[in-house]
């Protein structure tokens, strides 16, 4: 597959992956958090998610051919026994959210444009099916641009309403409840809305596809795409969160669109735009869902059907997906090579031990997961059909979706990137008989903290989902 995606369109796709219907719940989070804490949580979400994406990008360079990177290939060289589990988490996350989008289409559009719930769900297949048949994420760039125009309208609607009803009138208190600038309005609400903000920045499901398809997939260019995407997403979330909250205060609802006059022409257009956002977000979730399904099938096949124990010397293998550095020799007097190529003797023995513990010897290099045209179309047909059948028969699965988000989203955004980083960062130095640079050592330790953060968020999210409701 030719890699010709530009940084601009890769940024578009990543922003659209992150920014979806969940954006409209940010003002509700501010209702409990207050302005100060709400802004801080948005920044925490942006920083932690951005660092997770950065770690994934850096770990992709631990492959001889970074364009074959995926969660499966990295899992196979770091935690091979957990490859199926992690791909299953990816599948459940993307499948569950994709299903919720179809249900939302059926619940939203009949009240705006008329028709029946099932009719609109089936009608959504007209734009969705051609898009899910595209084989490259970069091919979705134009639909992502259209989706961002719809997002822009929603942002302008919220911003315009704030200017008109709050800044340009003295009667804003008629529609606005209490507003908290510094103090937390509701501590229990902070706990329950924390996960809303954290989950809003989930975009790691398409990170490897972006890395593989970028024409210039140098780490510098990838980091530019990540930085721009997170800055744009954070700016949108802050604008919607602050303006929406200052417009309605403690009266803001879980979906801020419900606060606006349903008879207003601008509100009707906004709800149609929300439907467009949801429909065009579906293919971006379906893309990694299909890859994860193929990876699981491949894992089952090589584990239980075609498994042959035939060790291969990795130094003689030309497999492009083999890790670049896999062997570390004992050498207690080795010095720590700094980022500036100066030798530092501090903590040398500890660093040598850490590196030896976390660089794996690979005897069976990981091959790129095959995905034939036949398998592509069969899996697409099965997944799309099952999603639509469920959407036509499921009206509410909030608890299940909450549990899926609490486990799947945090694992692919924080826990798994952190584990990859802790295991792989520094392997390139090991290949050349050196120890990690000080910068890599810091990143590796921060990766471990990211995994711990992910586990903590998972536990908190499960607690909120089970005891506070969703």
> How many domains?
1
The chain-level mean pLDDT equals: 80
Specify the CATH architecture: Up-down Bundle
CATH class wording:
Mainly Alpha
Radius of gyration: 23 Å
- What is the strand tally? 2
CATH fold-level label: Amino acid/polyamine transporter I
The chain-level structural class is mainly alpha
Poorly predicted runs are: 308-366
The oligomeric state of the chains shown is single chain
| CATH homologous superfamily designation | Amino acid/polyamine transporter I
Kindly describe this structure:
The protein is mainly α. The protein has one domain: Amino acid/polyamine transporter I. Helix content is 67%, strand content 1%. The chain contains 16 helices and two strands. Strands 1-2 form a two-stranded antiparallel sheet. The radius of gyration is 23 Å and the shape is globular. The two termini are 42 Å apart.
Element layout with pairings:
Elements: H1 7-18, H2 26-60, H3 71-78, H4 83-113, H5 117-123, H6 125-132, H7 141-167, H8 187-200, H9 207-213, H10 219-248, H11 265-305, E1 336-337, E2 343-344, H12 348-358, H13 373-393, H14 398-424, H15 427-431, H16 438-467
Antiparallel strand pairs: 1-2
Family: Belongs to the amino acid/polyamine transporter 2 family.
Main location: membrane
Subcellular location: Vacuole membrane
Q: What is the gist of this entry?
A:
The chain is mainly alpha-helical and 470 residues long. The protein is built from 16 helices and 2 strands.
Keywords:
470 residues, mainly alpha, Amino acid/polyamine transporter I, globular, L-histidine transmembrane transporter activity, L-serine transmembrane transporter activity, vacuole, L-tyrosine transmembrane transporter activity
């Amino acid at each position: 597959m030719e890699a010709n995606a530009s940084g601009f369109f890769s940024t578009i796709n990543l922003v659209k992956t992150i920014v979806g219907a969940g954006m409209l719940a940010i003002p509700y989070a501010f209702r409990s958090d207050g302005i100060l804490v709400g802004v801080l949580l948005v920044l925490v979400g942006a920083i932690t998610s951005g660092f997770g994406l950065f770690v994934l990008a850096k770990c992709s360079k631990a492959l001889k051919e970074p364009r074959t990177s995926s969660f499966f290939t990295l899992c196979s060289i770091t935690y091979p026994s957990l490859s199926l589990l992690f791909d299953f988490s990816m599948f459940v996350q993307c499948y569950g959210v994709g299903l919720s989008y179809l249900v939302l289409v059926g619940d939203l559009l009949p009240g705006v444009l008329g028709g029946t719930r099932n009719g609109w769900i089936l009608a959504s297949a007209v734009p969705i099916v051609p898009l899910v048949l595209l084989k490259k994420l970069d091919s979705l760039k134009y639909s992502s641009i259209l989706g961002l125009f719809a997002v822009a309208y929603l942002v302008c609607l919220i911003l315009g309403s704030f200017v008109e009803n709050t800044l340009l009138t003295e009667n804003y208190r008629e529609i606005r409840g209490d507003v908290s600038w510094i103090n937390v309005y509701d501590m229990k609400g902070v706990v329950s809305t924390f996960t809303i903000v954290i989950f809003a920045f989930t975009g790691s499901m398409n990170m490897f596809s972006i890395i593989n398809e970028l024409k210039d997939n140098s780490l510098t260019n990838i980091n530019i795409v990540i930085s721009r995407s997170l800055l744009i997403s954070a700016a949108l979330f802050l604008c919607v969160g602050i303006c929406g909250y200052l417009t309605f205060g403690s009266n803001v609802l879980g979906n801020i669109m419900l606060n606006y006059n349903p008879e207003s022409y601008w509100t009707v257009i906004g709800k149609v735009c929300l439907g467009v956002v949801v429909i065009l977000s579906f293919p971006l979730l379906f893309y990694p869902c299909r890859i994860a399904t193929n990876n699981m099938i491949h894992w089952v096949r090589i584990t239980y059907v075609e498994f042959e124990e035939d060790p291969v010397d990795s130094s003689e293998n030309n497999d492009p997906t083999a890790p670049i550095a896999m062997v570390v020799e004992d050498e207690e007097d080795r010095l720590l090579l700094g980022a500036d190529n100066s030798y530092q003797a501090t903590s040398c023995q500890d660093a040598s031990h850490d590196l030896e513990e976390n660089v794996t010897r690979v005897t069976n290099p990981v091959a790129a997961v095959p995905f034939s045209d036949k398998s592509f179309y069969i899996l697409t047909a099965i997944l799309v059909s099952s999603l639509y059948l469920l959407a036509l028969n499921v009206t509410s699965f909030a608890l299940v979706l909450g549990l899926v988000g609490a486990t799947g989203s945090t694992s692919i955004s924080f826990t798994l990137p952190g584990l990859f980083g802790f295991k792989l960062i520094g392997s390139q130095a090991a290949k050349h008989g050196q120890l990690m640079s000080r910068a890599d050592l810091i990143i590796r330790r921060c990766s471990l903290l990211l995994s711990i953060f992910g586990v903590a968020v998972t536990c908190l999210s499960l607690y909120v989902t089970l005891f506070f409701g969703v």
